[in-house]
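Response to reviewer comment R2.3. The reviewers asked that we include at least one raw input/output pair. We reproduce the pair for Cytochrome c-type biogenesis protein CcmE here without editing.
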Amino acid sequence: MKPRHKKLAIIASSVTALGVASVLVLNAFQSNLVFFFSPTQVANNEAPVGKSFRIGGLVEEGSVKRQADGVTVNFLVTDTAKVIPVVYTGILPDLFKEGKGVVAQGKLASDGIFRADEVLAKHDENYMPPEAAGALDQADKARKTVMQ
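Raw output as returned:
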């Protein structure tokens, strides 16, 4: 093999290896990507059904219902405009309370119920995830506009 052919073979194999590595990295990145949606966006069918995402808002007052098994909890998440039912099986965070901020990660079932794999509660009375706070503000503005 001539030096020129060796050089071309090295360049071609390097480009191929770089391409394969890029595809693997992008695939791993996309599979770990989790989007945030507000209850209004979920109710408006903007959230994917059957794919993992996060929903955030407030736990609606009087909506927390524990099932007989002791670990399954049903509750409603609201952004003051729309309400989404959530089912979670597991131990809830200590700070999980009605009327407080929550972010749940899971999948929306075809029946419209969000099945959470993980529930995160705010860590003090002043904190709310920026996405949830923004969604609540937008929903509140929209609700006030409709009422006028």
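The radius of gyration is 22 Å. The mean pLDDT is 86. Further pairs are available on request from the corresponding author.
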